[in-house]
Amino acid sequence: MPEPITPLVERPWDDVERMLDVDSALEQILSAFSPLQPITLPLLDAAGMVLAADVIAANDVPPFRNSAMDGYAVRASDTASATWAAPVELPVTAHVVAGQPEVPRLATSEAIRIMTGAPLPDGADAVVRFEETDESGSSDRPGRGRVLVYHAARPLDNVREAGEDIARSTRVAYRGQVLRPADLGLIASVGEPRVQVHRRPVIGVLSTGNEVTSPDAEPAPGRIRDSNSFVIGALARSWGADVRLLGIARDSVSDLTSRLDEARDVDLIVTSGGVSVGDYDLVKDVLKSEGEVAIWQVRMKPGKPLAFGQIGNTPLLGLPGNPVAAAVSFIVFGRPAIRRMLGHQEIQPRIVEVVSADGIDNRGQRRHYVRVRVEPADGGPPVARIAGEQGAGVLSSLAAADALMIVPEAMERVQPGTHLQAILLD
Ligand code: AMP
Ligand code: MG
Q: Which among 22, 201, 247, 335 could disulfide-bond with 341, CB atoms 3.0 to 4.6 Å apart, if both were Cys?
């Protein structure tokens, strides 16, 4: 529940009490999303995705007892008296290599030359490393000479037991787990070349505005180039979604309607612009007439106007047009929604504690996401410094930032040295 707020004197036109707080807005948005249906993917394509089913080991890893070193397979008891001064001499009766299907048995008081990963011969219980031996008469017939052993082996020295990494029937990866590289290796080693993961959502990204043109066109007077499509699209991709750029819609009912119609099959439409209070901000009117879309004023800065709802069965998130407001709103509201569709349990951003190097005013009872650069500090939390001009349209300071420092709604003034939370951008 939002806390009661003192009405604002500075900006009476901002009816702050009727604004929605960030957490309530996020909660309403998230209630519309759940993990997408599982699909089966080859292991490498599933890197970084979320498993939709447990993986149980069908075999031991390693599957058989084998040598951890290049050396000689022996019975440890045959080498018990070996020292550098008085080595034990054993005849070498065979040579086994990795991948060899059949391995001869080791008889008492003999040695078998063995390579890393080769099955340990029956009768052997240890491997003596090459570095602790000398083999004579083996240059033309390796594994047929005599070996001097300078080191007393103990049972199981340099032996890898079957199942010592993964025992058969144990769970090597579980539903809900994010597949990291080592997990993929474990899954491969128990014989599963494919896994079930929640599929990536497709995000349709639509810019709006009569003044907005594509970056490849020479802008006519009064027009600007579209940057939002690229910031939004790249963010969505970096979070694991697939992106479909839907272009730039004119501020006209027909163009907006037809572009939205083309995007009905995506998992989330993200628009930017047209949800504020300007004369041509008619995205919000089209959204209201085409679907069930609410327009909110959210108590945040940058950002504030935000649309959320459904066009037919397709969820739609309408971001403000100003590039930083759009990006911050997408990080705060879009990322958790995308992560939920991907099946992640951790959907909130990673928060770190920082110390503000700067004094910051925060009037207006809004949660302020300040673009900062974070530097490590001796013996305390990292220090956050303002990364440049904080206007909602100043994208260069977002580009210069590596974190968003969060000034709470009720904190009207941040004194230098104040400890605050920050969202890391990468
Ligand atoms: P609006 O919310 O549509 O009034 O837009 C607010 C501001 O953001 C205006 O100055 C727009 O020109 C700018 N803007 C809107 N869309 C984009 C975009 N795709 N790329 C860059 N700036 C934009
Ligand atoms: Mg506009």
A: 201
What's the length of the chain?
A: 426
- Say yes or no: CB of residue 302 within 6 Å of ligand 1: no
Parallel, antiparallel, or unpaired for β 224-225 and 212-213? parallel
For 328-378, write each residue's pLDDT tens digit: 999 999 999 999 999 999 999 999 999 999 999 999 999 999 999 999 999
Q: Which helix (H) or strand (E) holds 127?
A: strand 126-129
Give the separation between CA 232 and CA 234, rounded to whole angstroms: 6
Residue whose CA lies nearest to ligand 1 atom number 17: 321
The CB-side HSE value for 336 (13 A sphere, CA atoms) comes to 19
Which DSSP symbol is given to 244? E
365 within 8 A of 5, measured Cβ to Cβ: yes
The pLDDT, as a whole number, for residue 137 is 59
| Tokens at 332, concatenated | 């705060």
| Ligand 1 pocket, residue 210 CB under 6 Å | no
Name the one residue in this structure whose structure tokens are 């993961």: 197
| DSSP assignment of 37-66 | PEEEEEGGGGTTSBBSS-EE-SS-BSSS-E
- Report, as an integer, the average pLDDT of 31-35: 98
Please state at what angle helix 253-261 crosses helix 283-290, rounded to 10 degrees. 50
Q: Which of 43, 41, 369, 392 is nearest to 185 (CA)?
A: 43
Q: What is the CA radius of gyration of the chain?
A: 32
d(CA 179, CA 344) in angstroms, rounded, equals 11
Question: Is the bond into 12 cis (omega within 30 degrees of 0)?
Answer: no
Q: What is 331-347 written as a DSSP string?
A: IIIIHHHHHHHTT-S--
Q: How far does the centroid of ligand 2 lie from the alpha carbon of residue 280, in Å? A: 7
Instruction: Classify the phi-psi angles of 406: left when phi > 0, otherwise alpha if psi is within -120 to 50, otherwise beta.
Output: beta
- Indicate whether residue 35 lines ligand 1 (CB < 6 A): no
Instruction: Give dist(CA 43, CA 40) in Å, integer.
Output: 9
Show Cβ contacts of residue 177 under 8 Å, excluding neighbours closer than 6 positions.
50, 51, 183
pLDDT digit string, tens, across residues 271-304: 999 998 887 788 888 888 889 999 999 999 999 9
CA distance 44 to 364: 48
- pTM value is 0.91
